[in-house]
């Protein structure tokens, strides 16, 4: 317990410096701190502080980007969805592909060819039409290896996509423009996740970006999109501000005049902001602080089901972490049940595998590698691991559960001869280190695991896949991931995913250790939200939220 208190003091000391590093890195990467455009009202320029019909949402971590070709973290996905809109929406409660809400008004399937019809009134925030040319341009941007989009791998089952990605074709033959609002996409093989993955297509205006860089053009500092809100300003490490898009295709929506997404990179400070009413809601307050927040009678609480697990993401660039025996030894050395009892206080739990327990593909019989320090020492000795070797471990500053996890594991690994060097980082800095530079060894934010669609595992663990940030490769797993992707029968797919979960547990490219308890909080003056486990939980469908009468 003394060690935890000492770490808390160190956490406060590190917070300011890490935020400054993150801001500097963001500025260097082209995400400039934005001032509000001159045509925006004074109230909006001031952050809507005088406006009643605006929601202020607190978050623990900064988004790394608002570029839909580079988006790779939950904060960024939320903002990108607000600005650009998804090509096809997923029902926030059931995870079913809906059509309707989303740029697609309706779709049909004949054999392996989908026909998508866009909303007639779908326009960008500057009033220009969203057309199928814009959609094709966006698909090509996702598939172009020059952009290194984490989501490009999702669409390699489209006929001609592999050839385009390899540079042997100038277009994707399986994407056909029928007219300005109708598009056909033909798959080379069945793809059970294809419709779900269309949620990662956020359509951009071809006219504004053709012939320009899709990774660092100034367009993305003040973008035009078709989402419910349009960009106003972004102060890195502070407020991200967006206002109502008057050209939004869903008539009458959004109901709110604006949204402020505010970074408060400390769990206690975030809870205090909810208690005092400084912010209107958040999905990140620690559940242990519920009683404190409850002192504000205006706050409503929602507890969502468990999502995919937290634990450790391992970087195979480290010579020791590339060895399965060492990764297994790390897992065997950590008493997750003890951590859950000490830090999660009965609100979280010990995890098993990469799939959330409420998902249809979750294997309830799957057993995690057991806590066994003696086995851990044997594995390390067999791997030739030098006693006391240092491995860097990072978590995001301000997330007290992950900070406690880091401290807990530091002690556990010391007992078996591994020195875990703590390197807490601001969230956006951490995301960049994992997804862009590869400058990490063990990361306590998992960049793998699925809550809604198990097919996402192909993009996270497939050899060379865009979302595979560990460097893991297993040909047997690749074959199973392909088989699962092509299997449209749910019961048959369950059997394949059972094997996939067993392999990932045994190989441990990620240690899926514990289920994080979430607490969603929103001011009772707002209504219309849908509880969800998708990005930003109850704020996922922000365009539906309105002031209560």
How would you briefly describe this protein structure?
The chain is an alpha+beta fold and 549 residues long. The chain has helices at 2-28, 42-45, 74-84, 132-143, 161-166, 194-197, 206-209, 267-276, 290-293, 324-333, 336-344, 373-383, 400-414, 427-437, 457-461, 475-486, 490-507, and strands spanning 54-59, 104-110, 113-118, 175-179, 182-186, 229-234, 239-244, 258-263, 281-282, 299-302, 310-314, 349-350, 389-394, 418-422, 442-443, 510-515, 520-523, 526-527, 546-547.
If you had to describe this structure to a student in words, what would you say it looks like?
The chain is of the alpha+beta class and 549 residues long. The chain has 2 domains: 2-82 and 216-304 and 518-547, Periplasmic binding protein-like II (D-Maltodextrin-Binding Protein, domain 2); 310-515, Dipeptide-binding Protein, Domain 3 (Dipeptide-binding Protein, domain 3, Roll), CATH 3.10.105.10. The chain contains 17 helices and 19 strands. It has helices spanning 2-28, 42-45, 74-84, 132-143, 161-166, 194-197, 206-209, 267-276, 290-293, 324-333, 336-344, 373-383, 400-414, 427-437, 457-461, 475-486, 490-507; strands at residues 54-59, 104-110, 113-118, 175-179, 182-186, 229-234, 239-244, 258-263, 281-282, 299-302, 310-314, 349-350, 389-394, 418-422, 442-443, 510-515, 520-523, 526-527, 546-547. Strand 4 (175-179) and strand 5 (182-186) form a beta hairpin. Helix 1 crosses helix 13, helix 10 packs antiparallel against helix 12 and helix 16 (475-486) runs antiparallel to helix 17. It is globular, with a radius of gyration of 23 Å. It starts with a helix and ends with a strand. 52% of the residues are buried.
